[in-house]
Design a protein that fits this description.
heterodimer; A: about 260 residues; alpha/beta; TIM Barrel; nine-stranded parallel beta sheet; 9 strands; B: about 400 residues; four-stranded parallel beta sheet; 16 helices; 14 strands; about 15% strand; globular
Amino acid sequence: MSAVETAISARKDAGSGALIGYLPVGFPDLPTSIEAAVALVENGVDVLELGVPYSDPVMDGTVIQQATQAALAGGFRLRHAFDAVAAISARVSAPILLMTYWNPIIQFGIDKFADELLAAGGAGLITPDLIPDEGADWLATSDRTGLDRVFLAAPSSTEARLRQAVTLSRGFVYAVSTMGITGARSDVDAAARSLVSRLRDVEATSVCVGLGISTAEQVREVLGYADGAIVGSALVKALADGGVDAVARAAAALADGTRLN
Amino acid sequence: MALRDENGPYFGEYGGRHMPEPLVAAIDEITAAYEASKVDPTFQAELAELHRTYTGRPSIITEVPRFAEHAGGARIILKREDLNHTGSHKINNVLGQALLTKRLGKTRVIAETGAGQHGVATATAAALFGFDCTIFMGEVDTERQALNVARMRLLGAEVVSVTTGARTLKDAINEAYREWVGSVATTNYIFGTAAGPHPFPAMVRDFQKIIGEEAREQVLALTGRLPDVVAACVGGGSNAIGIFHAFLDDPGVRLLGFEAAGDGVDTERHAASIERGRPGVLHGARTYLLQDEDGQTIESHSISAGLDYPGVGPEHAWLADIGRAEYLPATDAEAMEALRLLSRTEGIIPAIESAHALAGAIRVGKELGEDAIILVNLSGRGDKDMETAGKYFDLLDATE
């Protein structure tokens, strides 16, 4: 079992599920993004998802777009992702996944990127714009290195595609809660529950739901049927508005949703 | 296998479907509808009838001897896509995809636009078919193409000014994708160029290849032989692949694509993706891109909004690699000079995009001399560019 699977399954064994927290590397600057990520873990986040800023983030809504564009404008370079993973993993034990669009990885070199991520203490990659159909190189590299590979499953995915995502993902399957992009929503779509159920039908054992989750109540609701809840924009907004203290409080509040009533 | 028979998803190492999973079902649906339409005589007849009675096809060819005097005396023949309804080649593709939208049972279309040509064509088709329509356009482009914004709104479309990133065509595409992910059940994305994920490169090409098929016959009828050179401007590359395709398996015909070189390919301000880019993945396809060493897209620059794009269609990337087509730069200054020259010598005002191909034809004509026949795709007309040209040539001062 990978470190991510172990972390998720430990929370399941305790009767609940995992909280996965997203923040972009380099926002508002590299040192603060590291402090903020550490604060997430210290306040109840079980798995970290660190975003790699990219010029054309087609799956991201306004909050994350603005943060990642600010990181790029502030001088983010790809190597900072390894610096951040190394610094965070030296301080906290939660496994760290990078969430990255695919072109930067291709340009860096898939094998070289994987080796450096492993050396920094990273656990794997979430790849929003890489479907397994186009991922032969990454499948081979992740098999060689043992890094986790998280593919997306969507409400629109066919059963065959869900099965493919389940078979080829390691760590967890990222269940996209709604047909849309990242950003807080008042209701987590009923489509999420149905999607997780369809993923269970094709024997998924580790499913985390993301997109639109921003409150402890939503986390609790999602963990009623999924193995993990992924929160991004709400944390990024807290960091943007109130700095590390605010994002720590936001994480603690969200983590309340992982506790049994 | 003939080069003309390449249909994706890959062209050599280029193309593919580098897409977020939520859009795969929609792409599969379009792929199926497009494959069915190719062998459906009813669909083909419907599209041909629309082109005959609405687009104004076939478009004519025009030989331009007074212009050609400035191009080494070569025979220069223009394929007049500027005379199509809505003023450019974009309508060829839009009507095809609009018919597919109807077959998919969807009631709303979205599109990106750079210069506004594709947006106007899509808004036009939406009016004709009764679709709701939203067009995404970078804020920079809404400013330099304000008249086209007004045209789209007059046609009933909503125009969304995109304020993210570089606020040009690539960002309009990003925003259209984001909108599509959330609305795919009712909405079809009418993509404007022969780029993006499969099936768009092959499908858009198939809807544009009528340009070359007509022109090949027309040039043969006029001159008794095939042209020596076929020239077109290349942004995403739909007009270029449209006129190249019929000639791909004619080895004696040189195919020349002219990329926007802006201030020059040795400056930081150009859009020459093949000349100065390297392979990567953007907007669903592996192709040549302008990007930094980290794979971040570099903002392109061109005086023509329609060529201001940091990528290029994957079939062009492949044709460049195998040497079947050559891709050469043409600067803002060369294009504007060619625009003025065609206007003054022939009374035809070309789009600034198409003027890049004319600039290339002047250069190639001088190399080849008067025995050469050069076919140029005049992909659009210059009405939309009057403000840019007026400023560039200082023509707007009413007191002079």
